[in-house]
Every structure is written in structure tokens, then in C-alpha cells.
Amino acid sequence: MPKLRLYAVILAFLCVPTGWATTDTSYSQADVETAILLRDDAMSGTRAWNIVESLTTEVGPRLAGSEAEARARDWAVENLTRYGFENVRVEPFMIEGWRRGAETAEVVSPFPQTLAITSLGNSVATPANGVEAEVVLFESLAALRAAPDDSLKGKIAYVGHAMKRTQDGSSYGHFVRLRSAGAVEAGRRGAIATLIRSIGTDSHRMPHTGNMSYSSDVTPIPIAALSNPDADQLERMAQRGQSIRVKLTLTPSYTGVVESGNVVAELPGSDLADELVVIGGHLDSWDLGTGAIDDGAGVAITMEVLRRIKEAGLKPRRTIRLVLWGSEEVGLLGGYAYADKHKDTLRNHVVGTESDFGAGRIWKITRSINEQAKPVADKIAELVEPLGIAPGSNSARSSGPDLSPMNAQGFPGFRFVQDGSDYFDLHHTPDDTLDKIDPAAMDQNVAAYLVFVWMAANSNVSDWGWPAEQ
Questions:
Q1: Chain segment 320-335, per-residue pLDDT in tens
Q2: Which of 255, 290, 283 is nearest to 434 (CA)?
Q3: Do 92 and 106 belong together in one domain?
Q4: What b-and-e string marks burial along 86-115, b requiring 16 or more CB atoms within 10 Å of the CB?
Q5: Contact partners, residue 416, CB within 8 Å, separation at least 6
Q6: Number of domains observed in the structure of the chain
Q7: Which of 36, 203, 277, 332 is the most buried (most CB within 10 A)?
Q8: How far apart are CA 57 and CA 358, in angstroms?
Q9: Residue 188: inside a domain, yes or no?
Q10: What is the tens place of the pLDDT at every residue in 49-77?
Q11: 406 and 295 within one domain
Q12: Which of 251, 276, 304 is the last residue of a domain?
């Protein structure tokens, strides 16, 4: 008999007759003991690394809307079915497809040399023979926005930034605006193309991709990211005081309307089966690396949580739903599709969280819940404290990117904040590969998620903070 199944049998005999052996009737002592056993057993080793190894080896990069993303859905359905979960299914939705082409850049003068670049997702192409023009340098998006209209006519804009590494990745939200708005602001001023410093913190010659968008009132222009060392090089050239000319060739293309989808699996509940606790990660990735950190790790962590509860023979009161979202990288499209498809039953979703910040150890919990759920949340915090996890604020705006469309409607959530000190060294680069993952760190993540899921799925609290219906 597997160890956790044996634990479940022991708990059935020892804990159920005692009833509510706690001063707070929000949860039972039996569930606390089960959570501890699940936590400690996970810390002795899990299959999370094996799951992400399988995904990144057997599927590899999983660009939204691509044949590879479709193979990832097949991989997920096959494995989730094999694990014995119920209601395993794909919930399809359609997106506008995009694929990368050739991407080259070189300084033509005054110091001829090649540059390491990558197209940003959704960028238009240059003409087939590229564009060549003088480069105008800006130190920030704000500086670009301060430039006069038509001041970049016929030129290439380069825009830098000063993003720094932080444990929680808090600087990303500010600086990523350059990736989204750079081409629009440069095009508004007459530029024919845009180069930006990669939105990342590494010093490797590996540029960072990521999605961008256009504005209907500005003619689209191509945009690419320079690796940080190449951005440094371009800025040093500018300090010489001479005009810099660059040739840039990008040949991405749009593939029309294509299918993506979310993969869903469940462990059905008992007496509260219509109420849902949601966990998951996003199945798609960018195409430069193998998507191990972003977000194969999150997929594997949450799949392993569900697998271990199933293997232990445990039956939660509420249904635990795993969602592996599609097309997150190109605009949270899977998250929006899920919220729309389930709009009539959103309030059945009691609480949830997504793992989408790599594979580092969790060091903090944030949450957005009401007073009624606070005793359960405080107990969860107490139970994960031995894992090195400290409580954070109750003002989290999101419980994960793909849950943010639901959070915007009031869905209460948790966020397990991982150590992201090196996350933006790897994020959206060719360096996002399996060798960067520490299996023991993944085990700690699984242990923490097990505590959250078990306590949330079995607590005596159904209202975690949805606002009153109008």
C-alpha cells in the first residue's frame, strides 16, 4: 500500500471520531493532520521534475497556436488520463496565429558588426531585404514619449531601460511596458523600425522575446529585442558621438485563425462537489527555449499535487480542478477564454492559485480574501512556515496571470511567491531549459500547494471573498 494511502487509512480511524478538534470550526484537526502528512511526504521527493522533463523533452517549445502547442495538449490529456483523474478534456478556443522567421541585425557604420536580436511576438516583418537607417537612441520609454512628432521619420528607434533583478520580480511590471508600447510610440514619431533592450536581467548574449501589440491609429512597424550585452555595445558606440547605421531584417508571419485550448482535469469532491478549488499553470511557451521555467515547472508542480492526492486515496469535500491554460504568452488568451466559458458558474470557484514564476523555492504567500476565510488562510500559512515560507499581504491583485481575468471580477485568490532572483535571466530566452531546475525546489513547491489545496478543498468556509452580487 503506498505510504500516503496508508496515512489516509490511519487518519480515517484516528481522526474522524474526534470531530472538530480545534477551537476554530473553519477546519478540522483531521484535515490539518492530513495536510502535514502530504507536506512532509512531498518533501521526501516527488515526481514534479520528471513531469517537466517529460513535457520539455517529448514536446519541447510550445508556441501559442502552433502544432507543438497542440501536441502539448495531447501530452497533457494522455498523462492526466493515465493518472486516473476525471473529466479530463480540452476546452478549445481560437486565436490569431504568429510564427517567427529570420531575424538578423548588423551595425553598418561606424563600427561594422552583427547584433544578437529576436523578434517580439506579434511583430510585423520588415521588407524581405530588410531596412537600413540611422539609429536614434533613447534611455527609456519616457524619453521616447517626450520626443517630438515626426522626429524619427525614416529612422530606427532604440530604447533602453534600467530594469534590475529583485527577489519577487517586482520591477518587471513597470519596465515591460516598453515591450508593449515601444513600436507604437516610435511609429507615432515616424520611425521605420524599433529595437529595445531585452526586458531581462542577464548578461548573456541571448535576447528576450515576449508579446507586443499595435494601436489602430499608428502604422505597425517591426520591433526586435537586443540582448543586454548588445544593447550595452550599441550604447557605447553612441558615446563616441558618431551617427550609427543599422540594417535589420525580420521575417515573421501571421498564420491566420488557429486553434488553441485549455486542458482541464478534476478530482471530484464529495458533499461540496459543485464548489471548485482551482490550481494550474500555462501549457504554452515561447519558442526560443524549451519552456521549462516558463511554465513547464508550473504545469508539473500542479499536476503532481493532484496526482499525489489521487494516489493517496484521499477524497476532498470540494472538487479540485486543474487547468493547464493555453496561449498565456500572447495575451492571457486561455485565461480570458476560461473566464468566458465558465461565466455562468464563476462563483462556484471558491479560491485558486496559479504557478507561473519558474521553479524557485516559495518564500512568501500573498492573498486576497475576506475575514471569514482568514482563519483557514492563517492555518495554511502556519503549516507552510516550516518550508521557509513567510506570510505576506492580503492585498494581492492577482492569484496568477491566467486567473487575473477572474480576479478582476472578484475571484478570491492566493499567490505562492517564488524566489525569482534569476527568473528574468532566463525568461523568454533560449536559456529557458530543464537544466536550470532544482528538483528539491520543485518538491518544496509541491508541498506548499498540497497544504493549500487540501485545506481549501476541505474547509468549512465557502465564501472566501467574492463581492456581493449586484
A1: 999 999 999 999 999 9
A2: 290
A3: no
A4: eebebbebebebbbbeebbbbbeeeeeeeb
A5: 353, 355, 362, 364, 365, 389, 445, 448, 449, 452
A6: 2
A7: 277
A8: 17
A9: yes
A10: 999 999 999 999 999 999 999 999 999 99
A11: yes
A12: 251
Q: Is residue 465 part of a domain?
A: no
Whether residues 425 and 278 fall in one domain: yes
Nearest to 354 by CA among 307, 285, 305: 305
Q: What does the alpha-carbon distance between residue 391 and residue 219 come to, in Å, rounded to a whole number?
A: 47
Residue 241 neighbours by CB distance under 10 Å:
7
Which residues, other chains included, contact 285 with Cβ-Cβ below 8 Å and sequence gap of 6+?
Answer: 61, 62, 63, 291, 294, 295, 296, 329, 432
**Quick check: is 53 catalytic?**
no
Mention every residue, 6+ apart, whose C-beta is less than 8 A from residue 250. 101, 102, 103, 119, 123, 125, 126, 130, 222, 224
What CA–CA distances, in Å, run from 161 to 119, 172, 199, 227, 454? 18, 11, 8, 13, 43
Last residue of a domain, one of 234, 251, 268: 251
- Residue 415: which residues within 8 A CB-CB, separation 6 or more? 353, 365, 366, 367, 396, 398, 399, 400
Q: pLDDT tier at 1 (50, 70, 90 boundaries)?
A: very low
Domain range spanning residue 138?
101-251
* Confidence band for 395, pLDDT divided at 50, 70 and 90: confident
In the predicted structure, residue 18 carries a pLDDT above the cut 60: no
pLDDT at 7 over 90: no
Check 185, 328, 329, 354 and give the catalytic one: 328
The string over 292-309, giving b where at least 16 C-beta atoms fall within 10 Å of a residue's C-beta and e elsewhere, is: bbbbbbbbbbbbbbbbbb
Same-domain check for residues 111 and 190: yes
Residue type (1 letter), 242:
Q
Could you read off the pLDDT of 118-128 as tens digits, one per residue? 999 999 999 99
Alpha carbon distance 109, 106 (integer Å): 9
Angular region, 150: left φ>0, alpha ψ -120 to 50, beta rest: left
Give dist(CA 456, CA 314) in Å, integer: 14
